[in-house]
Amino acid sequence: MDVAAVQSQLIERINSGVLVVDQNCCLLYFNRFMESHSLLQASEVIGKNLFDIFPDAPQRWLQRKIQSVFMLNTPAFSSWEQRQFVFKMRHARPVTTSSEYMAQNITFIPICSDGQSEPDKVGIIVEDMTDVFFYQQKLKDTLKELEEVSRTDGLTKVSNRRYWEERFRIEFETAQRHEHDLSLIMFDLDKFKRINDEYGHQAGDLVLVKATELVQQILRKGDLLGRYGGEEFGIILPNTADKGAYELAERIRSQFSLLTMQHDNRSINATMSMGICQFDSRFTRFEDMVTRADLALYQSKREGRNQVTIYQA
Amino acid sequence: MNDITLTEDQRDCLQELINVAMGQASDKLARYLQTFVHLQVPYIELIDSTVLPERFAETYAEEGVSLVSQGFYGEKGILGESLLIYKSHDAHGIAEILGYEPDDVSEVEQLTDISSILTTTFLNGLAEQIDNQLAYSAPRVVSSMETPLEQHLQQLSFNWDLALKVDISYQVVDFSFNCDMVLLIPGEAIKNIQKVLDQILDEF
Amino acid sequence: MSIPVLICDDSALARKQVKKSLPSEWDVEVQFATNGREALEVLREKQIGVLFLDLTMPEIDGVGVLEANHAEKLVDFIIVVSADIQPEMQSRVSELGALAFIQKPVNTTKLTEILQQYGLL
User: Fold this and answer.
1) What is the dihedral of CA B185, B187, B192, B194, to 10 degrees?
2) H or E element: which one contains A226?
3) Which of A78, A237, B52, B60 makes an SS bond possible with A106, Cβ 3.0 to 4.6 Å?
4) Chain A residues contacting B, CB < 8 Å?
């Protein structure tokens, strides 16, 4: 077998770009892959300076990189993850990919002339990583979506209990460490069972959705509403003392009591009872606040519902 | 789990090869970086890779670290993975050493670039002395500043039997940075390295 | 008559490498030392023609040996054999009286040239 002939044909037709430059970054070789993706002919680029052919290439960085290959006689690399591309070229996936240019992994290889131990040329191999780039992007999007889903309550789209508690633990520890204010509102819908019985479960669901929508509108940035279970919800209020929490809760309670919801041409009105607990340095766990806010909530219920109670030690 | 140990002669031989490779590497680096590179003679240690995490936990306690990995493979069944570990405050300003402008490169790219230069220059020097030629995979940052080093090393030690720990400290005029280099080598490749060391020892 | 030669290096491999790279036509009697302290003991005890000296060693290092020799004039011909070949180190050892500086691993041709240059061969 004529190895040299086979090698040269392989390099010419391989599905990666192959270029060779000399010490002045003059192009000595440009394979077919490079031709078809850069829309340049080898005959017009051979003998020209690499940076004249690719004026968009990061010149200072690339020159230093090529210099390192010559001086250290070691390979050098560039990855699409850090630098999406070095040579601005089209890729072979114009239809399925959103990215405009070819994502590239590049290897710079020292090449010595026969009998020499120091390199006088550098070979540059350009691999098309557009597919990987594309799938990585998709994977990232999907992971983000999954994360959203895993922390959201399916019906009301507010935080689910697991995520809400996770965040509450963090806020509680921050309050402990820095002695910041922190309040918790627990609330539940009054006579929710009766709504379900009278209007049907879909109506019950509607009331839950409407209630959370209203709360979300009133909450400030940084507050976090979560579904604690059934028709019970919790609101974490960082940097807020019980007085501020009470004002906010009152606004929610009164606006909700005035809200009329429509289901199957029937009007539904509902109310909520609320309990508030403020952070105290004697508490050791965030659950201590939940228990106390719940006690205040039961007091609201006992005293006739549709009201707000602050927990008193 | 593994019973591979180096004899005293093999250890001496490897230490000497590494010292020479280090000397050559620092000379080349000095010319490339156009500054003096002061290089301490590295201390080498061959350890079971399962104890690697605890060894490093102390050195890098309470500090952010960056970890860059690069695979290498050569003839005669010699292969492995090189890890360079930087304390995060040492990782700043590498662009300047490399002769880049700050806006030329991201922080991650500075790390992969300097790591690749240190690893390949050193290992090429080592390979040359044992009449071998190495090829390399592209360097990858395997841990960011935030994730604990121990966790990463624990994961890595599953795949490797022995680790050759080489403490390197580079000092460049007006600037110094330290990093640890760890060469992770699978058991089979260690045996191949031992064969090569024995051949060298037989020659002399 | 053979010339007494001392090779001082903490690495056994390096000592053997230096010994093996000595030109075969050079009539010498080789002795070894594994660190600077041992080397100085030998030098103070007997006449040595040529000392091959590593720089980084435990106990007393190569620079320490050069300094002691500078004061005591123990041996005339010292050739430093080191992996650290940076210019600042080279100029420091030549100030301390080393004749030549050879990069590890030692190369016979280079060594022969140096020995001839100083009329040792």
Assistant:
1) 90
2) strand A224-229
3) A78
4) 58, 60-61, 64-65, 67-68, 71-79, 81-83, 105, 107
DSSP state of A238: E
Chains contacting chain C through 3 or more C-beta pairs under 8 A: B
When CB atoms are compared, the residue of B104, B113, B135 closest to A60 is B104
Predicted local distance difference test score (pLDDT) of residue B1: 43
State whether B23 and C104 contact (CB < 8 Å): yes
A83–B29: do the CB atoms touch at under 8 Å? no
Using N-to-C axis directions, what is the helix angle for B8-33 and B107-129, rounded to 10°? 130
In the predicted model, is pLDDT for residue C19 greater than 50? yes
- Reported as a pLDDT band with limits 50, 70 and 90, residue A97 is low
Closest Cα in chain B, distance from residue A31 (Å) = 22
Number of domains in chain C: 1
Residues C6 and C78: their CA atoms lie apart, in Å, by 10
Specify the CATH number for A3-138; select among 3.30.450.20, 3.40.190.10, 3.40.1130.10, 3.40.50.300: 3.30.450.20
Which tokens sit at A33? 């892959």
pLDDT of amino acid A52: 96
Average pLDDT, chain A: 94
Looking at beta carbons, which residues of chain B come within 8 Å of C84?
Answer: 23, 26, 39, 41
Whichever domain contains C99, its CATH number is: 3.40.50.2300
CA distance B53 to B49: 8
Residues of B in contact with A77 (CB under 8 A): 112, 116, 136, 138-139
**Euclidean distance between CA atoms A20 and A202, whole angstroms:** 70
DSSP category for residue A273: E
Where in the sequence of chain A do the CATH 3.30.450.20 domains occur? 3-138
Residues shown for chain C: 121
Measure A256 CA to nearest chain B CA, in Å: 44
Q: Where in the sequence is the domain holding C102, given as residue range(s)?
A: 3-117
CATH superfamily assigned to domain A151-310:
Reverse transcriptase/Diguanylate cyclase domain (3.30.70.270)
pLDDT in tens, chain B (204 residues): 455 678 889 888 988 998 889 888 888 888 888 777 766 667 777 777 777 777 777 777 666 778 899 999 999 888 888 988 887 666 667 777 788 877 788 888 888 998 999 899 999 999 998 889 999 999 998 865 556 667 767 666 556 677 777 776 666 666 666 777 888 888 788 888 889 999 988 887
| pLDDT of A171 | 95
Which chain A residues are within 8 Å of B101, Cβ to Cβ?
60
**Number of other residues whose CB lies within 10 A of the CB of residue A5:** 9
* CATH numbers and ranges of domains, chain B: 8-203 (3.40.1550.10)
**pLDDT score recorded for residue B176:** 67
